[in-house]
Amino acid sequence: xxxxxxxxxxxxxxxxxxxxxxxxxxxxxxxxxxxxxxxxxxxxxxxxxxxxxxxxxxxxxxxxxxxxxxxxxxxxxxxxxxxxxxxxxxxxxxxxxxxxxxxxxxxxxxxxxxxxxxxxxxxxxxxxxxxxxxxxxxxxxxxxxxxxxxxxxxxxxxxxxxxxxxxxxxxxxxxxxxxxxxxxxxxxxxxxxxxxxxxxxxxxxxxxxxxxxxxxxxxxxxxxxxxxxxxxxxxxxxxxxxxxxxxxxxxxxxxxxxxxxxxxxxxxxxxxxxxxxxxxxxxxxxxxxxxxxxxxxxxxxxxxxxxxxxxxxxxxxxxxxxxxxxxxxxxxxxxxxxxxxxxxxxxxxxxxxxxxxxxxxxxxxxxxxxxxxxxxxxxxxxxxxxxxxxxxxxxxxxxxxxxxxxxxxxxxxxxxxxxxxxxxxxxxxxxxxxxxxxxxxxxxxxxxxxxxxxxxxxxxxxxxxxxxxxxxxxxxxxxxxxxxxxxxxxxxxxxxxxxxxxxxxxxxxxxxxxxxxxxxxxxxxxxxxxxxxxxxxxxxxxxxxxxxxxxxxxxxxxxxxxxxxxxxxxxxxxxxxxxxxxxxxxxxxxxxxxxx
Length: 596
Known about the structure:
Elements: H1 5-35, H2 37-56, H3 58-70, H4 93-96, E1 140-142, H5 150-155, E2 162-164, E3 167-169, H6 181-188, E4 201-205, H7 211-216, E5 222-227, H8 235-241, E6 246-248, E7 263-269, H9 277-289, E8 290-299, H10 309-321, E9 325-330, E10 333-337, E11 354-355, E12 373-374, H11 394-397, H12 401-404, H13 409-429, E13 442-445, H14 452-456, E14 463-469, H15 476-481, E15 485-489, E16 502-508, H16 526-536, E17 537-547, H17 549-561, E18 565-570, E19 580-585
Parallel strand pairs: 4-5, 4-7, 5-6, 7-8, 11-12, 13-14, 13-16, 14-15, 16-17
Antiparallel strand pairs: 1-3, 2-3, 8-10, 9-10, 17-19, 18-19
Pfam families: Methyltransf_29
Subcellular location: Endomembrane system; Membrane
Membrane topology: Single-pass membrane protein; Single-pass type II membrane protein
């Protein structure tokens, strides 16, 4: 007949107890997870597990990319771990240190495949502040934005930089000019026409914190500085935080990403590039980039340097073989002038130098192996020697001979100039975008063509990195002939800069950057490109994208995923076509605590 009632009740009570205890246990766990550091830390660890799974499981990563692209991933993309604040995917020392050291191959760009990269947003360092505006940034920046004391500790006595309270300050010195770059530039101006617009584009090789380039700006000379990712911790990041044009590069096994005859002045102050090694390969690359009639300045070893007599003799021998005119040797500084016209290279010389074959493209320079032959000036189209091109600022608007050499080049150039004057006026007057300091200083145009956007801003106190996509027509030579600067790049790869280095990013035709030219298929993902743009952009920085309404609808969904606020606007009324304009702003977000 069953158990007595008292026994049955006893069993029911114990079941009720278990249910009640379980309920209270769940409530307690909920409170622990919601309101305690343990909860934060468990959530962070869950996020990190998800992050790691997007890096180690390509299928999981692809699922996430597809969800973001389709707008079905409602949460923003996660932030990367706190130790990724200065991450550059293609210059990652942990990854690249395994590679060959021959000709510094391991210090060049080596990019991971997208599926090997976690899909996450690079966080700012703890205590990050909105950057000091230009021109004050040239002399001081926030310490919290790059809390790396190594340069100040090691080079403070040479006047590179100093720590002063909340700031790093820049007295303007360098290893070869502890008295300041101004004094050094004054010395150079005795031999080189630094005033009056004769010189405009300069390349500073191995630039420290770019005080040389920063000081030249006051002479109207636009110097682009480069250095590898370095043991001094982020010299290029310091340069960009100061508002000085710079990017990360290494002269190793490949050409630098510029066309032939780009720079009016090339400068090395203790850059330690072995110009005469490997049969003078590096000097030959400098020669390719230097405009005929341009100036080469080398300060420091091996110029009249103790125990470097052979290296100094070799350097002079290479310059002689290429018919460079020796302008001056002043202490440890040498100044040469490149000849105009085809090289007088003798048939016999101790370095075995010979002229490149006529078929060798002088301006191809995206992952292009260094050549052991000298570029023929006659193989570079147009008349682009110093002295024959107009002085700055006339050269900005006069149609360069390298544009005229293109099909309908004269008309295309003129139409492009008119188009950008109209567009930028609309950006300012109707979209209320401030394209000048103190609002912005470092600007990137990701699809620059002739540099028309940058040219309209040339009278403002901003500078523009004009990027010419490596699979599009290589018009970067025209950009340099106008007195502007830029690089070749393929946007299916990360760019060679540190995180948080640009205030404003401009793109005309974002989808064209990743599409295969012969089909509607993409070579890479728009999501990865947006995450890379977020890495480059400073907090409170802005992005402007021009494209079709369909593309901008996709971009707006992804903008939400990378935490940007965005709005879509009509284009300027005078322009034809279906384009619209998306404007987005990146917020200053902080890492939640315990997310390390």
